[in-house]
């Protein structure tokens, strides 16, 4: 079984890592941690380095628990929600874990919601964490 975690460094994403760790232990699963960026130009270098550090943190969290983990920094021009769903389809993911941020309805309408997109479009179960 393969579990996918969408990770962006927020507190809710860290909670998603912890839940995925519990599920991976319970089901004997491997974990793929994905950070998605829409663009990766030279001016975005600091953001890319920060994302890479976040993925290293995630990998160490699973290594401590002796859980197989692969990390992926995706810069494919897709929104984070599209990236997660497409990655899940490409890699036979059986469960997706994402953190949710508290936003007003207007904020969701204007800026969208990665978690909402994943919940509606993914072909596998999606678990959200606050």
Describe this structure in words.
The chain has a five-stranded parallel sheet with strand order 3-2-1-4-5, with helices on both faces. Strand 1 (2-6), helix 1 (11-27) and strand 2 (30-36) form a beta-alpha-beta unit. The longest helix has 20 residues, at 45-64. It has a single domain, classed as Rossmann fold. The protein has 130 residues and is an alpha/beta fold. The mean pLDDT is 91. 48% of the residues lie in helices and 21% in strands. Helix 3 (80-90) runs parallel beside helix 5. The protein contains five helices and five strands.
Estimated helix fraction = 40-55%
State the major sheet.
Answer: 5 strands, parallel
Mean pLDDT: 91
Structural shape: globular
CATH fold call: Rossmann fold
- The CATH architecture category equals 3-Layer(aba) Sandwich
Give the strand line-up of the largest sheet.
3-2-1-4-5
Following the backbone from N to C, one meets helices and strands in this order, namely EHEHEHEHHE
Strand content bin: 15-25%
Please work out how many helical segments DSSP would assign: 5
Q: Low-confidence stretches at least 5 residues in length (pLDDT < 50)?
A: none
What structural category do the secondary elements indicate? alpha/beta
Seen as an oligomer or otherwise, the chain set is: single chain
> What Rg, in angstroms, do the CA atoms define?
14 Å
* Total of domains: 1
CATH class: Alpha Beta
């Amino acid at each position: 079984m393969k579990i996918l975690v969408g990770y962006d460094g927020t507190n809710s994403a860290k909670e998603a890592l912890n839940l995925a760790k519990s599920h991976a232990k319970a089901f004997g699963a491997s974990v793929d941690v994905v950070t998605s960026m829409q663009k990766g130009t030279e001016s975005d270098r600091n953001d890319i380095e920060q994302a890479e550090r976040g993925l290293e943190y995630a990998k160490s969290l699973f290594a401590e628990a002796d859980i197989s983990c692969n990390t992926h920094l995706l810069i494919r021009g897709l929104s984070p929600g599209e990236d997660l769903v497409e990655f899940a389809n490409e890699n036979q993911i059986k469960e997706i874990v994402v953190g949710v941020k508290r936003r007003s309805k207007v904020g969701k309408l204007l800026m969208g919601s990665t978690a909402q997109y994943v919940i509606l479009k993914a072909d596998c179960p999606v678990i959200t964490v606050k």
